[in-house]
Amino acid sequence: MDAGKLGEDLLSVNDKNQTRRNALLSGVAALVLLRSLSIGAAAAPTSAPTMRSAPAVSNPGKVPSILPGDADLQRIVDDRVVTYHDSVGLIVGVVEPSGRRLFARGPAKVGNDDSVDGDTIFEIGSVSKVFTALALADEAPRGELSLSDPAAKYLPPGTKLPQRGPRPISLLDLGTHMSGLPKMPANVAITNFNDPNADMTANQFLQSVAAYELTRDVGSAYEYSNAGYDLLGIAVTNAGHTDFETLLKSRIFGPLHMENTRIASSLEEKDRLSAGYDAHLEPVPHARAPTLLGSDGVRSTANDLLNFIAANIGLTNLPLAPAMADMVKFQRPTQYSELKAALGWHVATLHGIEMIWENGQTAGYRAFIGFVPKSKVGVVVLSNSVNAIDDIGVHILDKDTPLRNLHREVAVKPSDFDGYIGRYEVSETFFLNITSDANRLYIQGTGQPRAELYSEGDGKFFLRVVDGEVIFQTDSGGRARSLSLIQGGKRVTALLTQ
Questions:
Q1: CATH number of the domain at 414-496, please?
Q2: N or C: which end of the chain has fewer CB within 10 A?
């Protein structure tokens, strides 16, 4: 399951005209607001920092770097892992005409002194979608399909997709999130939130999608859809007359020398797959190998993803270059004026810089890849914990976009939460519900998922899923009468109603 796209932050209820920072920095073009995370607590790792050079790239003109220096990049990594205990293992890689650099801190697994490095394998969640889309873009000039073809043409015989409006869902609609399908249809049975494909077969998935009723015409509006990419994965596999793994290995991973990039089902114990950790840096099990691979079936490394980014910005000359260019050529609008959906990618215009990026999240990992075509610079950020890292990638590519605020969690007694629980009114139609569950405190906005609050002491809390803080105002008895939510540089006050 990925981090998602295009959910508004809490303050959007009072500020419909999102600022660049709110719309793009909050999860980089917007994570789905307030995801529930697993719970637990663990000590942060303290392994020594490592900086390893990735394979050099050609720099005939000795172009000076426009990206942050080595000390600044290592400090960003160290802050997340050592100072603020926000990640277990974190690696940042940059690529530009002057070369490649890697910065790492923390272990691939707690209890192992070896730091993550450029060949450590991470789950990359929805970054997998970029490879599914590249397979699609590569098949079109081969004559194996046309992007305008109805998607059902490449699905198992007898498969029907929902339709609304004058035309059926096309392959391009799936690739640009314009199909009208939601992230995952509500009628798809998910028994384990952290492992949504655990009990789902391809036939069950196709039947559920076929039964879904579209709420808008096909192609009329953007809605981020894992279901759409799982369909696309099936379609490109059938068009290529092979299996998904063979298709990606032969046409993408092999030509790009992505030697350690794997489909989840092909990973073995000997592979260098890192362990995953939740928001409290407690271990979480790896998801079972998914039946549906198009949306999040790939695992990769920093070195391999740097190879991929280098090819996208023209630092390596490969036959895939035309297909990569086609992916960015097809851009569709979203509800944010500064964000467009390309084929597999999202394109953000931030402080005058056009940035092409994608992010991913699973139960124990985060991933971000992005590049700026004009300046030929790119970044890869991989973490083996679920806490947000997108701001690192965006800040490296655009220095005017700040890093998110970091906080230190302090231990509190669960009974201390009693005085905060209640329903707080922001407006007549929007409320913030504060609840406790299993000795944890949660916040939930109207119509939004809940997210955990982490204590800084003295009635101050912070969120990890978005860059936000909550401060409770209490009476002499310790009962909260109001709260202040600080997010995106703005503050909103909500009064206790019950």
A1: 2.40.128.50
A2: C
